[in-house]
Amino acid sequence: KPSAITSIVAVNDGDIQITWANPTNIGGTSLTITSYELQVKHDNGVYADASSYCQEGSLTLRQCTITKANLVTNYVLAVGDLVIAKVRAKNSKNLWSEWSDANTQGARIPDVPAKMATPVVTDAGLKLRITWTEPNFNYAPITAYKISIWNNDAGPAAWAIDTTNCDGTNAQVISNKYCEVPIATPLIATYGYTAGNNIKVKVEAQNGLGWGTASDDCTTGAVITKVPEKPANVPTKVAAKTSGTTIVIDITALTGANAGNSAITQYNVKYVKDSDAAVLMTTQGLSTEITLTGATLGSSYTFTYAGVNVHGEGTYSDASASIKAVELPAAPTALSCAYDSTVNIKFSWTAATDGSGTLSANKIYIKDINGNYVLAQTLGAVAETTIPMTTLAAAPYSLSTVGETVYFKLQASNELEYGPLTAATSCGGSATMKTVPSTPTIAPTITSYTETEIVVSYTAITSTGGSAIT
User: Fold this and answer.
1) Cβ-based neighbours of 451, under 8 Å, separated by 6 or more
2) Burial class (CB in 10 A: 0-12, 13-18, 19+), 67
3) Which among 134, 126, 162, 128 is positioned nearest to 147, based on CA atoms?
4) Fewer CB near the last or first residue (10 Å), C or N of the chain?
């Protein structure tokens, strides 16, 4: 009998091709095979002749192509049903062989592809990637995809096919199941999208039987990107880390729409020294804390910055406040104090070295009764001040003992910060604590009198409050 059916496959147009091999024994060495008979199994389980549906002459080539329409109409097969067939051969003596075994695997009745799932749009740098999932191709291989992008500028708007970047007939695109569309052209220049927009896209699949149903429109996912926006915030000085020839600034990271809806790859930072030209600092990467070393003491610096993404460098921020490169001021020198005869103590000193900056303030601290130095006054860039003894005698100093020594310290500030405290200085001699005289304890006496004069005598006060009786 003829050999078994060797293959049943679906060809590109959705028809079914059945092939088989010659029988191993044709009944004699001088005989030939003159014809074949082919039967296909009906959906009710009965085999029916299929030879008449084969293309003319194809049986002698041991193959038969039957249209899907014939299989559906005459054998009542439905989409997905396995096509089962058997064959027998007749030799030149008009003798028929037995029927071959029926196939147990092979092609099934095909149909157009099923409706596709909604595609996904993701960021691919200077492009947007449109990705889709292969649909149920219903037993006929996918031969093409149609990737449609909504064109806002079509006048009126309409679906467009980008055959340059998303050619759905391209074998690589079919295999990858994605394509990438440049943002600049066509999405912005041709299709009228702007930064921050989602694009609208749909996909449909084709096989040998035709086009399936298009996916639902995708209107979400990655958006149109561009260069970063101008930063809204200016760089600010990190005071705790700025000193001498080192200036540290902080910048605000750019995200979302401020980053052009694309990941920031680095920040570019420029500085201007005094009135010199702007200088681009060495690439800062993604750090938001920027350090300038080697600044010139006494010079003023301003800073600007811009974000960089795949599209390039964005607009620079406005300039920071001026930051002067200064060192901490030294401590004031030549501290002294004296009683000024009006129940005040006058404190004097020589101004501190400014650290290449401008002295702006001084602080004076007084030692209290417990030995702690308490801030008494914050002053401008002066070199003296007075403090009433009544103030020193009261809380928080409580220096109420007559003759008690007053101790004080100073520190000065410039644009950077307050410098070191001086060593403690004492106010000795006449500048010790004083108070009013004590109350007399002996009443005065009248020693003599006349019609026009009374002479009174009294005892001198010994508790003078630390100051001569005046």
Assistant:
1) none
2) middle
3) 162
4) C
Tokens 């992008």 belong to residue: 149
288 DSSP 8-state letter: S
Q: How many CB atoms lie within 10 A of CB 109?
A: 21
pTM over 0.70: no
Per-residue pLDDT tens over the stretch 332-355: 999 999 888 778 899 999 999 999
Write the burial class of residue 52 (CB in 10 Å: 0-12 exposed, 13-18 middle, 19+ buried): exposed
CA atoms within 13 A on the CB side of 183: 25
Angstrom distance (rounded) from CA 7 to CA 371: 106
Q: How far apart are CA 294 and CA 292, in angstroms?
A: 7
Q: HSE-up of 409 (CA within 13 Å, CB side)?
A: 16
Cα–Cα distance for residue pair 357/346, rounded to 1 Å:
27
Q: How high is the pLDDT of residue 59? A: 81
Q: Give the pLDDT confidence of 139-198 residue by residue, as tens digits.
A: 888 999 999 999 988 777 799 999 999 999 999 999 999 999 999 999 999 999 999 999
Q: Reduced to 3 states, what is the DSSP secondary structure of residue 177?
A: coil
Tokens matching residue 346:
């006058």
Q: What is the pLDDT of residues 220-234, one digit of tens each?
A: 999 999 999 999 999
CB contact set of 156 (below 8 Å; sequence gap of 6+): none
